[in-house]
Amino acid sequence: PSPSGALAAPEGFPLLAHEAAGEGGLVYLDSAATTQKPACVLEAVDAFYRTNNANPHRGAHRLGGAATEALEAARRDVARFVGADADEVAFTSGTTCALNQLAYGLAGLLRPGDEVAVSLLEHHSNLVPWLTVAKLAGAKVRYLVPDRQGRVPDGEIDRAVGSRTRIVAVSHVSNVLGCVQPVERIVRAAHDAGALVVLDCAQSVAHLPVDLHALGADFAAFSGHKMYGPMGTGALYARRGAASALGPLLRGGGMVEAVFEQGFTFKGFPAVLEAGTPNAAGAVGMAAAARFLEALGMEAVHAHGEALARRMAAGLAAMPSARLYGPGPDGAEERCGIVAFNVRGVGADLAARALDRRNVAVRAGAHCAQPLVRHLGAEAVCRASTGVYTSERDVDRSLGAVEAARQDAANLMTSAML
Ligand code: PMP
């Protein structure tokens, strides 16, 4: 732990070390969009290119072997990190890529009248692919509607998952509200109905201990860059036994067993989903990030994010000018380091810009979750999201900036009236 109260010293993240000079240094509260990278991740990527660079799985030469071993070691690390076995994990370019591979790969299961159940909290990446394949198949997308805290209640699961449901695709943790969905309950209901379950773990893997075997999901998707790894990396998990239901979306080199003039045969999972040259350096960096988080301990990471979110939510709830969305500061429900809010009478974009002038980085908008933000009765919201480098002092500075943003808006109104 760092003296500032962060779980991992910000000085270990070169960008933060560079930005944090002086009193008013950067407070980065946009980790749900992408996290900053620790030096160990940057060094792992650099070392791959300096010492192991060759095309994995292709060359008979020594370096080809080293690159293959680096990629497969990375697969073992990433799999262990989410409670899976290495042969259940395919590398992808991120969550969006994995979810598209899943939607198109499972589309053959859908018949007219079948249903795909998603929640109203989904990121567009776990919505648009299902809307697309459902339409192509004549199937319907049904929604699990969350309560005011952003959690899908049991009654909703029973209402929306039934005999017509073929696939249930839900996010583990909302990227807007930070609330944790009852995924064990959802998996049980889906399996009782004979449906497959896809989990969008893009946020959860950075915030919670995730054990995919224990959760029982059939498939899962997550990104390296949201868990302190490089951009352009991610993984698709397929439970052993479920992988055979999944056809490939991308076709080409590396995923075929034999190719003839008029046909071809596929390799098994995970190779069948890894057509083309993999981002091996990225995978190595993602594995370094997984080891970095394991060393911190995911229980500690979760407790840290939860405490910061409660502090932020409590500060906002005490401000008459702020409107908080999702879980309140004292709620018993499990949550992660993500807090959504608005400043009354100030557009989310203007509020975020006012925070930016005070060197506090938050994101404003619909956060690629338009149906949810509409359901919240807003057009846009501000989102503060923490990382392992975030401290209580950062949260307090951002609360001060929210108060100042409201004051800016009031001053602007007064000067307009004069
Ligand atoms: N799902 C969720 C819950 C997310 O937060 C994100 C990223 N904002 C995605 C999917 C898409 O991830 P990526 O952009 O890394 O593909």
Bound molecules: 4'-deoxy-4'-aminopyridoxal-5'-phosphate
* Radius of gyration (Å): 22 Å
Major beta sheet, specifics? 7 strands, mixed
User: What is the element string, with H for helices and E for strands?
Assistant: HEHHEHEHEHEHEHHEEEEHHEEHEEHEH
Helix-residue proportion: 25-40%
The number of distinct helices, counting runs of at least 4 residues, comes to 14
Which percent range describes the beta-strand content? Answer: 15-25%
The class by helix and strand makeup works out as alpha/beta
Shape: globular
Mean pLDDT across residues = 95
Distance between the termini: 51 Å
**Number of β-strand runs:** 15
Residue runs with pLDDT of under 50 for 5 or more positions = none
Strand order of the largest sheet: 2-8-7-6-5-3-4
Report what the structure shows.
This protein has helices at 14-19, 39-52, 62-81, 95-106, 128-137, 154-160, 183-192, 204-207, 212-215, 280-296, 298-317, 348-357, 370-375, 392-417; strands at residues 27-28, 89-92, 115-119, 140-144, 165-171, 196-200, 219-223, 234-238, 256-260, 263-266, 322-325, 338-343, 360-361, 363-365, 381-385. The chain has 418 residues and is of the alpha/beta class. The strands form 4 sheets. The protein has a 7-stranded mixed beta sheet, sandwiched between helices. A 4-stranded antiparallel beta sheet has the order 11-12-15-14, covered by helices on one side. α5 (128-137) links the parallel β3 and β4. α3 (62-81) packs parallel to α10 (280-296) and α12 (348-357) crosses α14 (392-417). The protein starts with 13 loop residues before the first helix and ends with a helix. Residues 94-96, 123, 125-126, 171, 175, 200, 202-203, 223, 225, 368 line the site of 4'-deoxy-4'-aminopyridoxal-5'-phosphate.
